[in-house]
Amino acid sequence: MSARGRYARILRTPHVVPLMVAALLARLPIGIDSIAIVLFLRERTGSYATAGIVSAALALGGGAGAPLSGRLIDRFGHRRVLVPLALVHGGGLALLVGLALLDAPVALLLPVALVGGAAIPPISATMRPLWSPMLDGDAELLPAAYALDSITIELVFTIGPLLTALATALLSPAAALGLAVVLVIGGTLAFTALPPSRAWVPDPARAGHGRLGALTSPGLRTLVLATLPLGFCFGAVEVTLPAFSEDMATRAWAGVLLAVWALGSAAGGIVYGARADRLPLAPTYVRLAALLPLTFVPLAAAPSLAAMVPLCVLAGVAIAPLAASGNQLVGDVAPAGRLTEAYTWLVTAIVVGLSVGNAVAGVLVEAADWRVSFLVGAACGAIGSVLAFTRRGTLAPAAVA
């Protein structure tokens, strides 16, 4: 079957398009929250430091809370967990705005941001287990479906900042956060009302509640360990591209370069999904993990903005394929009854890696320069490659505990 036919079959499957649209809407706040909080708190407090700390608290709360949310979903189902989480997250954003308007101290904003972040509904982790039943377990279509999901994530990080910029330009940063509240609640309600979500039934008897939960799987531990340093690599690039842009011309170009980076990832995801069914899953993941840091090295040699554009495309091409193959592997190695929680651990690994990468890159850019920061990010990403290679034996389904 051609790539076009494969994607067409997926999109013609009953409920797929409405579910993808609802999931996109519910996930858009992920691409809005951080930048809108930074813009809003910078406007209210005059301090980027305060804005950055509160934004980081929201992100770290999301990373810390995701596995617990996933475990609850595995035990109680979608609607009973996702809707309350959406309400708490939306309420947290609204409370954050209200407190800032009242000139509340940072000490009060931080716990609100942490709780609000911890309540971000894990829509991505909830969506991924639905692909197999929707597609009747079709092994030819599943890799392309995971690729589509990875491309949707790139749309979140492309459309979200654009909506933030538009809302800020027309109204204010607070309006962007208000939009995020509407999207997370409305999107989550729509997602949980659709038949695939309603049909998903948890298995409380098999859902793990031990200390390690889904991490009892050696394969999942491998994926998490490999993802942490790769997340660091992504976080370093997020901070270093603005520094490069400022050095070459103006910081405003950073948004363009980040969007090009995301488009490169989306393009890579489309190509991967078109042929993934013919590739051995675990070896492909290991090869992509080895390739990805290598695509970041040329960024350090960019002589101009014009040259950086194709280099950003190159740095993006392996991201969505790696995410798609990693997410498909989670389905193979996750312990029975713990699938949603298993998917959330990759989210946590990415968030933690991103946060550390952001912080370290900021120090490197000021202490050395943007070239060093790019190279350190790529070197750290290579650690993930080594971990994926040395622990590749755990990625077979038989390795599940």
How does this structure look, described?
- This protein has 401 residues and is mainly α.
- It contains 17 helices and no strands.
- Helix 2 packs antiparallel against helix 9.
- The chain is globular, with a radius of gyration of 20 Å.
Which consecutive residue ranges, at least 5 long each, have pLDDT under 50? none
Q: Tell me, rounded to a whole number, the average pLDDT.
A: 86
Number of helices: 17
- The whole-angstrom Rg is 20 Å
Biggest sheet descriptor:
none
- Shape type: globular
How many distinct beta strands?
0
How far apart lie the N and C ends?
A: 36 Å
Order of helices and strands: HHHHHHHHHHHHHHHHH
Helix/sheet category: mainly alpha
Percent of sequence in beta strands:
under 5%
**Helix percentage:** over 70%
Brief characterization of the structure:
This protein has 401 residues and is an all-alpha fold. It contains 17 helices and no strands. It has helices spanning 3-12, 16-45, 48-76, 79-101, 106-118, 123-127, 131-134, 142-170, 173-193, 195-199, 218-248, 253-275, 281-296, 305-316, 319-333, 339-367, 370-390.
